[in-house]
Structure formats: C-alpha cells, structure tokens
Amino acid sequence: MNRDGKNTISVRLVDEALLGFTLSSRSAEELLRQLGLGAIDLADNEGRVDVADFSKLWRRLARQFDDEFFGMDARRMRTGSFAFVCRAAMAQPTLDAALRVALDFFRLTFEGFRGELFRSESLAEIMLSEPEDAAPLRAFSYFTFWMLLHGLACWLVGRRIPLLAVELRCEEPAYTDDYRVMFSRNLRFARPSTRVIFAAEVLDLPVRRSEQELHGFLAHAPSNILVKYRDTTSLASRIKAQLRELPAEQWPTSEALARTLCVSASTLRRRLAEAGQTYQAIKDQVRQEMATLWLADASITYADIAERLGFADVSSFYKAFRKWTGTNPGQYRSLILRGDEGP
C-alpha cells in the first residue's frame, strides 16, 4: 500500500473487485488474506495499490473462482476466456472485424448485457444492450468490461485509441478519478444507455499481431491494460487545472504562466518537454475537453463554443476539433444528443 499515484490504482477499486466474491460468512479482508494479499488496507480510502498487486488480485480471484469478470454476471467468464478472445480477434484483418468477433464472444459469455458496434460517418460507438427491466450494473462492472475490450483493441493495433465519451446507465459513483484517467474525462452517468464513442477511422487499422506477441501480452495482463494513474500534482495537471478556471481569452502566455509558477519560460518549456508535453498541447487538450462537454448541451451554439474556446470563428473551431478527434463537431453533437433519446 502507498499513497503515491504512479503505477497505482485506488484501493476503492480493490473493494469493488472483491464485492462479487464476499459473503456474510467471509469478509473482504479475509478473502484478501486467503489470496496472499493481506497487506492491502481496505480501510484506507485514500490509499493506492500497485498495479502489479491489483493484477495478482485479478489473476488469483479468477483462478480460485474460475471467473475473470469478478463474479459480476450470472454467468462466469471462465479462466482462459480473455486469452481465447484475444486469439480470435487477432486473426481478423482489421480492428472493425476484430471488435465484432470480440463482441460476439462476449455476447455468448455474459447474460446481463450484449455489446454492438455501430459506425456513423466519422464516429463509431459500442453500445451495451441490457434487458428492459434490468437495473443498471455497478459502474465498476461497466468499466471492467470497457477495460477488457478497449485494452484489447489498443493492443491489436499497437496504439492508444482515444475515447471521446463514455456514457453509463448507472448513477455516478462516489469515486471516479481513476476512471477519468483510464478512459476519458468526458464521463456521463445516468444516461439512457451505456456506450463508448470514438473516431471511426481507427476501425480500418490493420491487425498485425503474432502468436509470440500474444504470449507476451497475456503474460503481463491485466497490468498492461490498466492505464497508469495520472499524477494530479504534476506540472501539466496543475496547468490544466489553472486553465479550466479561466475563460480562454484570459489564458496566460507561456511567459506569464512561467511567472505564476516562479520559473523562467525556458525552464517551463524544458520541464514540460521532459514530460512529453508542450504548453500549446495542454491548451488544446483542455479545449477539446471543454468542447466535448459543451457539444452535449444543445442550448450552446457552435458560435458560442468557438468564442468560449478563443477561436476567431466557427470554421477555425471545426478544423481544430477535427484535428483533435478525427470527426467534426456537428457529427459528434448529433451522435451524443441522439443517445440522450435512448436506444
């Protein structure tokens, strides 16, 4: 247990992972001890667990209960299922075909939901269908499924696939910080359906993975698909937090920003470069984040969004949004608002 953000996840997610396996006669703490992970302190809500330890937890729970989905569905996802779906998906020519094979497999595996891939112009969405009278699942259940599917997709094409939005039927849980890092800052809860939205262009990417690469991927799973925790005290995170509090027209120049941080402009550039960032990239990341939020509100016009983000006109905003996301604001808004009407 530690309180350092790097390569860790919140202990609250450990608690969630154990929930499906704990009984009145067996506490979560007792189960952790049985699994050889008794050092994890579930009472420390601010504590963080090494990704390696969470991976051990996942593997040991799966081995003991023959379920790779934490006991969260009426049917078990038997040990070896993830390896099987990876092997089936990597035999496909494109990510589009691979995802459809994976979704077919999960449709046969789970009873509580089924996923479908839809493509609409420059956007794609994967939507989970659930029985009409079914109560929403826990957020952890939805996010675990997305982690398996999204992690597999990223590995198949050898690149990170940005998620433009993640919508869930359930209410927002008390803790979402890690989810916003793993998936997207644009999380929307209490929606009519559960889905993820991303640029459709990635569906055409070729799948080129060998059996040897699969062995390496599975040997390190799931730690290699658990996105590393973002340090909220890092320089980039502090700058983003500052920009979110200001209208775009009041965003400081790099020189003014450096002064507020009590460093020189050259030192600021160097420290950002060491983290693989630039001030311009950080500003664009915040602009994209705010744009996706405002596009989900039909009362805010494109002109209003362009002005709020500091663009000279709507055309400039459109070009920038397409550069950031691979789609245009109109198509994104149309898909988001259509989802508000329900499946």
From TrEMBL:
Residues 237-335 form the HTH araC/xylS-type domain. GO terms for cellular component: cytosol. It comes from the Bacteria. Keywords: DNA-binding, Transcription, Transcription regulation. The keyword Methyltransferase does not apply. The keyword Transcription applies. One of its GO terms (molecular function) is DNA-binding transcription factor activity. PANTHER family: HTH-TYPE TRANSCRIPTIONAL REGULATOR GADX, HTH-TYPE TRANSCRIPTIONAL REGULATOR VQSM. This is AraC family transcriptional regulator.
